[in-house]
């Protein structure tokens, strides 16, 4: 695959197909997981439902940081600025470590309040937090 010379529709197909297959299996994992947990007890479904909102927010943050990094690094590589690309990668890694630390700190602090605000009480709250 040559990103500079191959036709764009061919490149999109080569990139989109594996990504689509990956998302399909990710979705199927969630469907099967939810179905299995629904067989156990209602609290499990409630806990999964509560945790899905923060999970999607964190997933969006990670995807956004990754795509932004990809765009900057690939632009630097396309301009033959290899040192800049290496510096951008190092900065992105440092940013990801800092962001991870902040997410853990903020998550441990504010997740119980967020779940209570969303209506979680007693055993549902305990299960969602675990």
Overview of this protein structure:
- The protein has 130 residues and is mainly alpha-helical.
- The chain has a domain at 52-122.
- Helices cover 88% and strands 0% of the residues.
- The chain contains 4 helices and no strands.
- It has helices at residues 8-40, 42-78, 82-117, 122-129.
- Helix 1 runs antiparallel to helix 2 (42-78) and helix 2 (42-78) runs antiparallel to helix 3.
- It is flat and about 60 Å long.
Short description:
This protein has helices spanning 8-40, 42-78, 82-117, 122-129.
Write the layout of secondary structure elements.
Layout: H1 8-40, H2 42-78, H3 82-117, H4 122-129
Q: Biggest sheet, in brief? A: none
Helicity, as a percent range: over 70%
Radius of gyration: 20 Å
Low-confidence stretches: none
Structural class: mainly alpha
Please state roughly what percent of the residues sit in beta strands, choosing from under 5%, 5-15%, 15-25%, 25-35%, 35-45% or over 45%.
under 5%
Strand elements, count = 0
Order of helices and strands: HHHH
Shape: flat
Distance between the termini: 44 Å
Count of DSSP helices? 4
Mean pLDDT across the residues is 88
Output the keywords.
130 residues; mainly alpha; 4 helices; flat
